[in-house]
Amino acid sequence: MQQRSLKLSALTVAVLSSFSTLVYAQDATEKTEATLPTIQVKANADASAEGLSAPYAGGQVARGARVGVLGQQDNMETPFTVTSYTQELIQNQQAASVGDVLLNDPAVRVARGFGNYQQLYMVRGLPIYSDDMSYNGLYGLLPRQYLSTEIIERVEVLRGANAFLNGAAPGGSGLGGAINVVPKRADNEPITQVTAGVQSGGQGYVAADLGRRVADDRVGIRVNVARRDGDTAVDGSSGELTIAGVGVDYRDGRVRVSADIGYQDHRLKASQPSFYVATTDVPKAPDASSAIAQPWTYSNEKDSFGTVRGEYDFTSNITGWAAFGVREGRESSSFANPTLLNGNGDTSAYVLDTVREDSIQTGEIGLRGNFKTGSVSHKVSLSAMGYKALSKNAYGFSDFSGFAGNIYSPTHVDKPSTTFFPGGRMTNPLVTERLETSSVALADAMSFFNDKLLITVGGRYQYIDDTTYNYDTGVAAPGTAKSAVTPVGGIVYRITPAMSVYANYIEGLVKGDIVSASSGANNIGEALDPYKTKQVEAGFKFDAGRIGGAVGVYQTRRPVGGVGDDNRYDIVGHQRYRGLELSAYGEIVPSVKVLGGVSLLDTDLNGKEGIGAPKSQANLGLEWAVRQIKGLSLDGRVIYTSSQYADAANTQKIPSWTRIDLGARYVMPMGEQVLTLRARVENVADKDYWASSGGYPGQGYLTLGAPRTYIVSASVDF
Known about the structure:
Blueprint: H1 2-24, H2 26-32, E1 64-66, E2 72-74, E3 81-86, H3 87-92, H4 98-102, E4 108-112, E5 119-123, E6 126-129, E7 134-135, E8 138-139, E9 152-159, H5 163-166, E10 177-183, E11 191-199, E12 204-214, E13 219-231, E14 238-252, E15 255-269, E16 275-277, E17 298-313, E18 318-335, E19 339-340, E20 346-349, E21 352-373, E22 376-397, E23 403-406, E24 421-423, E25 431-448, E26 453-468, E27 482-496, E28 499-510, E29 531-543, E30 547-563, E31 569-589, E32 592-604, E33 616-625, E34 632-641, E35 644-645, E36 653-654, E37 657-670, E38 673-682, E39 690-694, E40 700-704, E41 709-717
Parallel strand pairs: 7-10, 16-19
Antiparallel strand pairs: 1-2, 3-9, 4-5, 5-6, 7-8, 9-10, 11-12, 11-41, 12-13, 13-14, 14-15, 15-17, 16-40, 17-18, 18-21, 19-20, 20-23, 21-22, 22-24, 22-25, 25-26, 26-27, 27-28, 28-29, 29-30, 30-31, 31-32, 32-33, 33-34, 34-37, 35-36, 37-38, 38-41, 39-40
């Protein structure tokens, strides 16, 4: 462990030294600035000369996104499937969280973590934990359970395996995709915006967004603060959120530096629980607005996080970058998630109290160069990443015999004692896990025939060192230091400027299982090698100028651990995921925007479908600018999800569901200011439905869809 710590420290020093170099390089920059091209300042979150991809027609998505170590890539020129949702879409839909934004994606559905309120995103039938999202390319920096949108410029979704592009997600998810959050930056024009709103139940909302460029536009400052407080559309439930973010960027010739500081305090009281299932007769979903949760259940999460990133042009075709980030988080909670016993809705529940503290350090350094060999253009990227996490945990269970209830006739009980089965110190938890990862990646993106044929090859060496400790004594269990190499191959052929075909081979990577005593195997305590998920994908993309989209097919094979005939725990099979995806975005006509698509998925493990993996999902969103009434826009969205299973044996099934959302926006001048009024109704039909049936691998549990919710707000731009 000492050796690994020294390696991370060396990476940290390298990152910080790189920033020192950037700062002291300014004098040299002034001497050579005249020979360098002028860089136009624009909203840009990663201190990159490439900047953010421009919004596509309609402004709801961007033309491209960050594709891991490869940097910013245009949708038509990347061999992967990416969608970047813009701040314009986020604000116009009044999306409160990352999960709300991802409801627009036909390949994504929002679920929950195992036994808690954590947002979890199912992409191509596989989970991405919210703490496995990246923040401007770095893992582990965002709040672990929920992220509010006020500090977000873009939410970028990459569908499919991505270990080469981003490194292995430290939480052990991300086999079906990756999510990157891009923070806000000061734009060319000053921003002074104040927003106030309210939603069903009376929860109030206020926010301020300020942005300025100073020092001849070389320095940008963006400040966002927001507060939510009050009851929700669910009886007896309330929420409270405070978030603040400050982003600063600096540009001068060869040098570009950016930094972010964020703070979020999120508190939930009596939110709808998750439901475990102990019957094949799954009951119908109850009234989504009813007070099923016990009034003493809660979840509190407080996080402080920050990053700094810099880029320096050594020459006109060689650029180096470095980044470093930290997060400190603390959580406490009390859960009582019911187990469904029969089709009548009878339940049994016990209490789980938890506390958790996280301390994260993460960093990245890299070089990118452009050159030619004959008629072939090369863009070579070399990157090294390091990650270190210390986690402290403690818990307490009540008597497992539990207390009775019913989802159709909820009753409330006094909170049982949670001293029946304790683990660790609730007031001062010990370190229970130390996770350190490091990786090195090398890629060559080659262009042939005047950029008509694009080929990308590369590989990443990944090291994972995970040690767990006894909750009560702090004694370490055997470590799981393992490594693996994950390759990549991608190809794009531009048939015409408006049409391209693509294909890729890429792998996903998560740490291998530690064989537990409960398995009954003869290799208890052995740490298996990291599990590799292998994916092939091919498709067609089009860009007609005002409307674009894609159609693609893929197959993913994920290893599954178990006890074999030799009584040894090892990889015993593979779960197969085959899918077809269609997407469309842009403007059908100048006054009508479209955003949507279809995702078809077939999963198979020994003839059974995967948990929480619907066969079909579809989204269709339309927005109409009413020409007869200047400033008025109307929008609607339909979300469909087919039936899905909650158990590996496929005996517990929840039905399909369809949700309709409607919205309106009116923009009007108000003297020298601009007033924007927004109104939205989500789940217009007030339909009660089970929204998801899984998330955490191998575990089935149900989450209840939100009831009909009204949201109104007013924004003033000064």
